[in-house]
Amino acid sequence: MNLVLIIGGVVVLLALVVASSSIRIAREYERGVVFRLGRLIALKGPGLFFKYPGVDHVTMVDLRVITLEVPPQEVITSDNVTVKVSAVIFFQVLDAQAAIIRVRNYMEATSQIAQTTLRAVLGQSSLDELLGSRDTINAKLQAIIDRQTEPWGIKVATVELKDAQLDESMVRALARQAEAEREKRAKIIATDGEFQAAQVLADAAAIISTQPAALALRYMQTLLDMGSNQNSTIVFPIPIELIRPLLAEPVPLAKPVSVHAPVPVNGTVPVNGATPPVGTALVGGAAPANGATVRAV
Hints:
Layout: H1 2-22, E1 23-26, E2 30-36, E3 39-40, E4 47-50, E5 56-62, E6 66-76, E7 82-93, H2 96-101, H3 106-123, H4 127-132, H5 134-149, E8 154-165, H6 168-208, H7 212-226, H8 240-243
Helix pairs in contact: 3-5
């Protein structure tokens, strides 16, 4: 009797072990790829399904979107700049059977395809495109990787460049380039503003030149604006026409007349250097003779 109980217990225990190994549960996002005696049969799941112990081999495949990080790759761009670039890939297994039977390890294969494609695409792009046209590069990477992984039943949804690391010297060069570009735009904007202001001033000068009174009023208004600040020093220009008379040469004054000179009054003319008596005057317009000097009154 005891032997029968022992044999029955062993049988029950073996039945439980077989039953536990025969029952599999697949979640909603999982599928079971079953090989029965080495041959592929229909997918199992989601939910409860059975397999034959020792006969069936089941591999569970996750159908959710998988995030795969591509390690940093050292790339030489088309303009001979060395840069380290890392990326991230979002893909999903659409055909679980193809992902198992057509590639040994679809995760590793997808990672390697992503690395080689990343180096190939970025090697054909310049540094400016890498920094400024990431959307275009991401779309190109996604199309190439998806085309290569499609036979494996994998759909690549998105590829994003994660980071780009440059050497310190290249970073400083890019900073100088950006600063020069900003200075260039600032000078262009300032020059354009001066050009427009010059055009407006030329139009205003053409209008004011027809009205001298308007020019005078504008002149006075400018002086008034300058005098609003009490701490300012104003250099007041004076038209040259106002001070030109003051700059003319002075008129020489007449020489003084001596009152002590002898003047002949009787019409006689001094002869041989004789001095005429005081009070005499020359009459009739006769000229002095023998070098005599006559002083006019």
